[in-house]
Amino acid sequence: MKITDIQFEKMTFTFHEPFKIAFAVIEGYDTLVVKLSTDEGLAGYGEAAPLGFVTGDNLDTALALGQEYRQMLLGQDPLAIARIHQLMDGAYAGNTSIKAAIDMACYDIAAQKMGVPLWKYLGGSDPEVVTDVTLGMDTPERMAAKALEWVEGGFTELKVKLGEDPGTDLARMQAIRKAVGPHIVLRIDANQGWDVKQSIRMARALEPLDIDLIEQPVPDWDLEGLRRVRDASLIPVAADESCHSPMDAHRLTGCVDGMNIKLMKCGGIYQALKINAVAESAGLFCMIGCMGESKIANTAAMHLAAATPNIRKVDLDVTFFAEGAQVRGGFTSEGGRCRLSDRPGLGIDVDF
Ligand code: MG
């Protein structure tokens, strides 16, 4: 099979309400959708959803590089995924969003060629995945009310954005736990907002609230800091912004209890599988998360989650906040319980 064309289209999504995390307020997002065509009539979709302060690229650089990769990859076999990555990485380091887009389009085509959904192509046996939903930062009262709203909507797992002053953050978690009761899974993402000592103090103060994990408490470069927090905390500690590649995963073993994989950070499913292999070989769990992306990338990540037992925590919630009419199909959901279809490939339709 040969790649005959790669086309690009920008799409814009607006959040129903602004979303606040430790280092930004996000009102919406643009993504770059990729359509990869082949000489066998199969077409695959992918998506680049850069978040500059995490991935170091943006939509314009993703598009510029996408055009270069188009020239480089025309005539290549989309099933030769190792070769595709070798060519992309050989030309440019980093720039993982556009690599992820081309990667997931290749996997879409490969699974279609086999006549199976991507979750089955990747070795999965169960198309159901339970995701959490994320609470942005607000007053403790408003966050508790929002938490209850999600729980009443059928969600059993919540991820809470923290990373401001520890006193306010603790009040937020106390209010949320009180509102949702003891049986809802609560995990925390501090988005690098605390230092090591604040993180250790918070981990101890949060212990009675039965917290599932603390994600990226300290700055991304501070692996030793992560290790110190992990060693002092009875709550599991996970890396997110510190983990972009299989090599990062290797460096993180011994520093954390788990790692958050995002297709946009690592360059797609091919690299995500390697990160998971490194983590699993060190006895660490993986979770999977998302950026400001549409149902294309979110569904690709869902397929990976469904097929990968060591991805034990799922945070694929962006389409609950903003859904575009341009993208249809993909997973369906009832509360946090998501289900992938039996359609071959990603199972996504795009107005392109
Ligand atoms: Mg995170």
- How many distinct beta strands? 16
Shape estimate = globular
Quote the average pLDDT.
96
| Poorly predicted sequence stretches spanning 5 or more consecutive residues | none
Biggest sheet record:
8 strands, parallel
Order of SSEs: EEEHHHHHEEHEHEHEHEHEHHEHEEEEE
How does the helix and strand content classify structurally? alpha/beta
Continuous helix count: 13
Strand arrangement within the widest β-sheet reads: 5-6-7-8-9-10-11-12
Top keywords for this entry?
352 residues; alpha/beta; eight-stranded parallel sheet; three-stranded antiparallel sheet; 13 helices; 16 strands; binds magnesium ion
Short description:
This protein is of the alpha/beta class. It has 13 helices and 16 strands.
SSE order and pairing:
Layout: E1 3-21, E2 24-38, E3 43-48, H1 52-55, H2 59-73, H3 81-91, H4 96-114, H5 118-121, E4 128-130, E5 133-135, H6 140-152, E6 157-161, H7 166-180, E7 185-189, H8 196-206, E8 211-215, H9 223-232, E9 237-239, H10 246-252, E10 258-261, H11 263-266, H12 269-281, E11 285-288, H13 295-307, E12 311-314, E13 327-329, E14 332-334, E15 337-339, E16 348-350
Helix pairs in contact: 2-4, 3-4, 6-7, 7-8, 8-9, 10-12
Residues 189, 191, 215-216, 240, 260, 289 line the site of magnesium ion.
